[in-house]
Design goal:
The complex is a heterodimer of chains A (439) and B (171).
Chain A: H1 3-19, H2 24-39, H3 42-57, H4 64-77, H5 80-92, H6 98-111, H7 117-127, H8 129-134, H9 139-155, H10 160-168, H11 173-201, H12 214-222, H13 225-239, H14 245-262, H15 268-302, H16 304-315, H17 319-336, H18 339-356, H19 363-383, H20 389-397, H21 403-426, H22 429-438
Helix pairs in contact in A: 1-2, 1-15, 2-3, 2-15, 3-15, 4-14, 4-15, 5-6, 5-12, 6-9, 6-11, 7-9, 7-20, 9-11, 9-19, 9-20, 9-21, 10-18, 10-19, 11-19, 11-21, 11-22, 13-14, 15-18, 16-18, 17-18, 17-19, 18-19, 19-21
Chain B: H1 17-51, H2 58-79, H3 95-129, H4 142-170
Helix pairs in contact in B: 1-2, 2-4, 3-4
Classes of the chains: A mainly alpha (439), B mainly alpha (171).
């Protein structure tokens, strides 16, 4: 049997295992081990795994992941997300749909210290949802807004998905973070506009809110200076090349810890919860990484990715057509699969194909641009039916809003997502401009 | 990104209290190591900034610390069932059958991690024999690999315990 067939068999077997409820990371690990053994030998597999797990976990670039997760967990546990929401609501509350807009604004700021969309959704589900429902916002509109706002956790750098993409395609993480900045801000802008339009067309979904006294407003604004300062420090420091992403994450973690302890907003119980949540999330990611290491080693042995790239190139299809087809496929995959696993699984096959396409740009630019497109598609997959992870998270919190209502609430935002995707597809400068300016 | 997809088993399966406690303590230890890594990196950044003199080999400490922390996190993730399960086709199955399937996969996970533990043990012996050390600080590599082997072995035990717990609660 040729390597390509073995690789396809490995892919198929793995997907069956995943469909039968095996953990994604373990499915990749099992399929990868068997394939690797078949194509080389048992002793080669043993030699590969001897120190592979250790070397993978002791990778300096990857050390940014637990630190970013810890930073987000500390911010969540010390109540910064609710402070952000209250401050945003104090200023935007009197506009129609203002509380929903406040969710987006607060998620944008929170996204700059949190690299995870599920964590962002969960924390704002607890911090903002009761407030929205108390003000008689439509249930599905409220949960939909928070599910979509949660995607800003990854769309606004830092983001764990971008770190992993950067490592896989050997690109500079800081450059990817820069490239994500303008599209990330566009995302929050488009979400604000969407809320404005929805609130205008269906005023009953988003009632008006009492305006707040000026003194009251500034009191709320003052409570958020730590988080804004840290976000600026971390993101600005990474963009300005003052420190590496790992150093930025470490600075943010320590700063949040110190501020939390000084303001007494972070007690022992909160610290313990932060660490345990970090442990669970980090371990989940690294188990997937461990599985993808061996699976991708197996794929490389099979030479299937190279052959697929050669085949597509030989067909001479229009580059934009191929790219659009790949992105469409990702949207479909994202609807039934975990986003991180999806990227780790498919990138070794798709990235060589994309790299071989001619868009008239430098290879590095192409890799960064594709990464941002991929990030946006992942964001859509997090909220789109039938398996939008963020929607599940918010549903678990909002017990009295049916899942279908949340999906309906998400729909107008998905339209905004598609517009943004097309914009960045047509104007790569939206992503690359800042990289060229700063790097 | 803690993928506790809503369709997963609502409650983590019961495991012996000692195992759950050990996994939790290990995770807290990993958290302490991660915080220590953050502190070392911050001190290094400050020293670089103030005296242009970073801590030598700070990135090696970060590497070793991260590896230890992540290995320490693994067993807790299994106890808390933080791993992703995609539930597309099996959500219609009876809960009892689903529990049996999950128990089977936990045994597979235990086998895989047991295998990794064996491989890492071999890696420990090799790095010990070859006196492999880190580049700047010349810290021996083998204790980190050994910690990984121990942690993966414990993870295998935890997975067997969760498998056992799943069989009992659904039976």
């Amino acid at each position: 049997m040729s390597g390509t067939w073995i690789a396809l068999l490995g892919f198929g077997g793995m997907l069956v295992l995943i469909a039968l409820r095996l953990h994604v990371g373990v499915a990749m690990f099992v399929a990868g081990c068997l394939g690797y053994m078949y194509l080389s030998s048992g002793s080669a597999l043993f030699a590969f795994l001897k120190t592979n797990a250790y070397n993978l976990f002791a990778n300096y670039t990857l050390s940014v992941i637990p630190l970013f997760i810890l930073m987000g967990a500390l911010a969540e546990q010390s109540g910064l997300s609710s402070a952000l929401f209250r401050a945003a609501a104090a200023f935007m509350g009197q506009v129609r749909g203002g509380l929903a807009m406040a969710v987006i604004a607060a998620c944008t700021a929170f996204g700059a210290i949190c690299g995870s969309s599920v964590a962002t959704t969960a924390t704002f589900g607890r911090a903002a949802l009761p407030e929205l429902l108390r003000n008689k916002y439509d249930g599905g509109f409220a949960t939909g807004t928070i599910a979509v706002g949660g995607t800003l956790g990854i769309l606004i750098p830092p983001s764990v998905i971008l770190v992993i993409y950067a490592i896989m395609v050997e690109q500079n993480i800081s450059h990817l973070f820069m490239a994500a900045f303008v599209p990330g801000l566009l995302a929050s802008l488009f979400y604000l506009v969407t809320i404005f339009l929805v609130a205008r067309r269906k005023p009953e979904m988003a009632p008006r809110h009492e305006p707040m006294a000026r003194g009251e407003r500034w009191k709320h604004a003052k409570a958020v200076w730590p988080v804004l300062l840290i976000a600026t420090l971390v993101v600005g420091g990474i963009y300005g090349g003052v420190f590496s992403p790992t150093e930025g994450a470490a600075v943010g973690t320590v700063a949040l810890l110190l501020i939390g302890l000084a303001q007494r907003s972070l007690g022992w119980a909160a610290l313990r919860t932060s660490i345990l949540n970090t442990a669970s999330t980090t371990a989940m990611i690294f188990v997937i990484l461990m599985g993808s290491e061996i699976f991708n080693a197996f794929l490389a042995l099979s030479q299937m990715p190279m052959q697929a790239a050669a085949l597509i190139t030989a067909l001479g299809l229009p580059p934009y057509g191929v790219l659009a087809a790949i992105l469409a496929l990702y949207i479909l995959l994202g609807a039934v699969m975990d986003e991180l696993a999806m990227i780790l699984l498919t990138l070794p096959v798709f990235f060589p194909i994309v790299s071989a396409l001619d868009f008239g740009m430098q290879p590095d630019d192409l890799a960064i641009w594709f990464g941002i497109l991929l990030l946006m598609v992942v964001g859509i997959g997090l909220t789109a039916p039938p398996i939008g992870l963020n929607v599940f998270v918010i549903s678990a919190i909002a017990k009295n809003v049916p899942l279908a209502r949340t999906y309906r609430g998400v729909l107008p935002f998905i339209a905004a997502d598609v517009v943004r995707l097309v914009l960045v597809l047509l104007f790569p400068g939206l992503a690359l401009g800042l990289v060229h300016l700063l790097a | 990104m803690d993928h506790t997809v809503a369709t997963q088993t609502p409650e983590p399966p019961r495991v012996p209290r000692l195992i759950a406690l050990a996994a939790k303590v290990l995770a807290m230890f990993g958290g302490a190591v991660a915080l220590a890594v953050a502190a070392v990196v911050v001190v290094s950044v400050l020293r670089r900034w103030l005296f242009s003199q970073p801590i030598p080999g700070d990135f090696e400490l970060a590497q070793i610390g991260t590896a230890v922390a992540v290995f320490a996190f693994l067993p807790y993730c299994q106890v808390a069932r933080g791993n992703i399960v995609v539930d597309t086709f099996t959500s219609t199955l009876p809960a009892r059958l689903r529990g049996r399937i999950d128990a089977l996969w936990d045994v597979v996970y235990a086998a895989a991690m047991g295998f990794v533990a064996v491989c890492l043990t071999r890696g420990t012996l090799d790095t010990f024999a070859s006196h492999e050390v880190s580049m700047v600080l010349r810290i021996p590599v083998w204790p980190g690999v050994a910690f990984g082997a121990l942690s993966c072995a414990f993870l295998a035990i935890v997975s067997l315990a969760t498998a056992h717990g799943l069989m009992r609660t659904r039976a």
